[in-house]
Amino acid sequence: MVIARTLSVIAITLFCWCAQSSRANAETRTDRVLQARPEAVQWFQDARFGMFIHWGVYSVPGRGEWVMENEKIPISAYEKFAPQFNPQAFDAKKIVSLAKRAGMRYITITSKHHDGFAMWPSKQSTWNIVDATPYKKDPLQALANEAHRQGIKLFFYYSQMDWHHPDYWPLGEKRGHAAGRAPGGDFARYLEYMNAQLTELLTQYGEIGGIWFDGMWDKPDADWQLQRTYNLIHRLQPSAMIGSNHHAAPFPGEDFQMFEKDLPGANSAGFNTTHVSSLPRESCDTINDAWGYNKLDDHYKSTRQLIHFLVRSAGANANFLLNIGPTATGEVQSEFERRLEEIGQWMNQHGETIYATHAGPVSPRSWGVTTERDGKIYVHILDWKDRYLPLPALPGIKTARMFDTGQVVALRTLDDGLLLELPDSTSTELVDQIVVLQR
């Protein structure tokens, strides 16, 4: 009996020591800011082109994803859109195939926007597409299955701001005040809710490319406990990339920096930071003016404009995330489809000058940009009418040719630069004249 009791004490002591050691290791891991695996970061850097999808219950009124806030609709009235959301025409295979034909390497879809509506059957709230709508299906699961099948990475957009959840409190300075919620709430409890939803997204859909956060700008000084959330994501999916549309310099734990409706550092939109980090970058924009479906918005950008933004993004060392907003029935507008098909045709011929490139040695100019890959410099001439194009000094350049035709481009070395003699001064109708320089 003495021996048995002694062995029992030893066993309990060892168990307690192991448990304490495990907790200590967990705390150490929590204290260390985790990042995505290097190979995932490199993949994202090389991808260069992705599809953004803004889709949710706001597609029912068809006046954009901000309709609840813009029209000051209280929660009680906004919730009546959910029974009308029955997207029977949603076809995950069609959407993923469209992205692939467009030359896109990944898809980022709104899992939850600012209205708090979950586009999957979240167990944290009944305010979701299965419990609150007649659709009763999980479109994220269908999209994840098809994306995995076709070799497209899937990212989830997640809004940290929430106009619907009672614990998102205090409210931000200007947003969500017309929702009609009772004062009060527990922000720490809201963060638990958010992390629980993120855990669902990261454990139920296979390998996820990353999480695209938005809305932290609503309460920039709040205690968001970013390290806790970011470490949770990186532990659950070590290859998942984290980015946040907070319009500020990146925080520890973020793996890429994003710029909304802007090129890195430009801040033409007026709310982006001009700080450009060394992280991989991403610029996002719309085909018309709206992110979510807006039946009144017919201000469509031309295919030429969209290709130019894609090229200028690559020249700024950034990916281009191009948005579509499906209708309440789940369909993609024909205007979007046509432009994506046309971009895909261009990318089929010119993808070498975009994919896996980095910004070239000539900084962006009004006439265009340069990209570089495998020792080749691609000079993208987007807006230039003259026969001669001056470049800064590029030591060692020996040959130049037109990418599309292989035609030799005459080079002249100047005291302070290089002069390209373009073969056809009337070819401005081309979307992008590309000259390949080699040393």
Q: Tell me about the biggest sheet?
A: 8 strands, parallel
- How big a fraction of the residues is strand? 15-25%
Mean pLDDT, to the nearest integer, reads: 92
Going across the biggest sheet, name each strand in turn. Answer: 5-4-3-2-1-8-7-6
Distance separating the two termini = 84 Å
Strand and helix order? HHEHHHEHEHEHEEEHEHEEEEEEEE
- CATH top-level class of the largest domain: Alpha Beta
- Total number of beta strands: 16
Description:
It is a single chain. This protein has 439 residues and is an alpha/beta fold. It has 2 domains: 35-357, TIM Barrel; 368-438, Immunoglobulin-like. It contains 10 helices and 16 strands. It has helices at 2-31, 38-47, 67-70, 75-78, 92-101, 139-150, 187-203, 226-236, 303-315, 334-350; strands at 49-53, 106-112, 153-159, 210-214, 241-245, 257-260, 281-286, 318-324, 358-359, 368-373, 376-381, 388-392, 399-402, 410-414, 417-421, 433-438. The strands form 3 sheets. An 8-stranded parallel beta sheet has the order 5-4-3-2-1-8-7-6. Strand 14 (410-414) and strand 15 form a beta hairpin. Helix 7 packs parallel to helix 8 (226-236) and helix 9 (303-315) packs across helix 10. The radius of gyration is 25 Å and the shape is elongated. The N and C termini lie far apart (84 Å).
Features:
single chain; about 450 residues; alpha/beta; disordered N terminus; about 30% helix; eight-stranded parallel sheet; 10 helices; TIM Barrel; about 20% strand; Immunoglobulin-like
